[in-house]
Design goal:
- By secondary structure, the protein is α+β, with helices and mostly antiparallel strands.
- The chain contains one helix and four strands; from the N terminus they run H-E-E-E-E.
- The chain has a four-stranded antiparallel beta sheet with strand order 1-2-3-4, with helices on one face.
- It starts with 5 loop residues before the first helix and ends with a strand.
């Protein structure tokens, strides 16, 4: 009768353990990467929602309908606005209160929108630089884009304001 000796079983377990430990060590890295990917995908959707809001703003309006972003008139000066957003793209909490800081419930993202209006008397489009960063950091001085964040997504869109 032939079988495995105790030494062979112990060696087989040692080899299996030696091979499985690095694989098990990759699980936390995979989970972190997955979370970062979900946040980046959400940030992309949020930037698209902000761009859609700006596109839906009538040429005569001074603020966008959904997010209340200040839109300069043609020939006006560059404006920078920061807003805090939740996972679902809202800039208000469950009770309808506008998110004004990252410490408020569910403020996950910070959107910094820089609007550059077209020069007066030209047919050029206005441009909007939309920077979504996470986690939401305290409001920057003078609405400047944040400098410390874990992840970001940036888009530049042209807006016809004529």
């Amino acid at each position: 009768m032939e079988g495995f000796s105790l030494v062979e079983v112990v060696l087989a377990l040692a080899v299996a353990t030696f091979c499985l430990l690095p694989i098990l060590g990759l699980i936390p890295i995979g989970l972190t990467t997955n979370q970062d990917t979900v946040r980046a995908t959400t940030a992309t959707s949020l930037a698209e929602a902000v761009a859609d809001d700006l596109r839906a703003t009538p040429p005569s309006a001074l603020t966008s309908p959904s997010y209340g972003l200040g839109v300069p008139a043609t020939g006006g000066s560059v404006t920078t606005t920061t807003i805090y957003l939740t996972q679902d793209g809202s800039n208000t909490d469950g009770s309808g209160t506008k998110l004004t800081s990252p410490s408020m419930t569910q403020a996950t993202y910070l959107a910094t929108v820089v609007l550059t209006p077209a020069a007066a008397g030209t047919l050029n489009a206005s441009t909007a630089r939309i920077l979504i960063t996470w986690p939401a950091q305290p409001n920057q001085a003078n609405n400047q884009p944040p400098t410390h964040y874990k992840g970001s997504f940036e888009a530049v869109v042209g807006l016809s304001r004529n």
